[in-house]
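Researcher: I'm comparing several assemblies side by side, and this is the next one on my list. It has 454 residues spread over two chains. Same procedure as the others: predict the full complex and return the structure.
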Amino acid sequence: MNNKEYALIVAGGKGTRIKSKVPKQFLDLDGVPILMRTINTFYAYSPTITVIVVLPEDDFPIWEELCLLHKYNKPLILTKGGDTRFQSVKNGLDKIEGDDGLVAIHDGVRPLVGEDIIGASFRLAAVHGSAVAAVRLKESIRMTDQDNTKAMDRSRFRLVQTPQTFTVSLIKQAYQIKEDASLTDDASVAERSGHVISLFEGSYENIKITTPEDLIVAEALLKDRRR
Amino acid sequence: MNNKEYALIVAGGKGTRIKSKVPKQFLDLDGVPILMRTINTFYAYSPTITVIVVLPEDDFPIWEELCLLHKYNKPLILTKGGDTRFQSVKNGLDKIEGDDGLVAIHDGVRPLVGEDIIGASFRLAAVHGSAVAAVRLKESIRMTDQDNTKAMDRSRFRLVQTPQTFTVSLIKQAYQIKEDASLTDDASVAERSGHVISLFEGSYENIKITTPEDLIVAEALLKDRRR
């Protein structure tokens, strides 16, 4: 296996949860669209990484306009999203020729991922086949059980983030399974296909921007980093 | 049952997770110590509420100094914390005379709880005996299972916040049980004592301030509210 590295950035969301007509991945975060920031972090980690961006076809014109506006000319492979995240990731994986290398699958709306997290995910996936960023729970957790809920031991749970990094061969094979609604992330797809999932320590700052509050939080965290 | 309302605010943390010698509940949040903001929100909800604050005895002098500095003279019952959260809550409950009314048990470091959330918790606890603020998961979740982890259905889980509001009689009786480390919140204590727990919709903004990043996030959310 060579060490060719890919970033597959999925930016399929329609922004329905943020009160904005602009899909959330295009919203401005301190002067730069969220998706552009996300891509930039992968290039900051490695200038030779191959970046594949999956976008709904309807959003291609906005993206092209934003690239013009920001004089953005980083090389990337743009491909169209499917009806679901599963389909979008599959379309993105189709853009990788052959089965060599590693691919970090990442949410387009997680611009605060650090270069250290990206680096760790590639290093660990090279060893274990998979490396999925996850964090411990800060709060108590309850599980619903019929019409009741019960307290669970929170130390046994992890909240899953992205990047979720895999060997290309593993994840391409995994995405051959039949899609269903319970497959909410790439780790669950790989697991369903019979692979053991390796987790590694993510970061609480690596938030997914899905609500107006998240955007405010992201701005504050970004401002603090620059201090 | 009368409708007397109590707020039992637990501020026992030593601030070890925030790089600060000042316990985290005393840190400044936009000009006002966090604990003071938390208390103020309960008074904003109801000027006639009885507020009980549980603090480590060592922290009484800092609190008194802060009250002088901020000319803070809201009436409150101050009582000393125990070695654990369980003991602290128990000490606070001991300050309530009789078994009538409702008590909202709340983390001192959740200053962004809204008056609406507090109001809902009292209304629902009056009907159901308990009302525990909880939110759905925004991210996928995995459960550890020996040395492996497995994907879980995130729709079945809730992250638990405070306030956790109960009839005084129910929660006083519940806190008679023997303490153990798995009882991480009041809902788990009440449940262990045989009560069914009612959840209600909390708020993602109602964060618990335990890290330096949380403080930055709280400041940003607060600033946004004032706009």
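Model: For your comparison table: The two ends of chain A are 41 Å apart (CA to CA).
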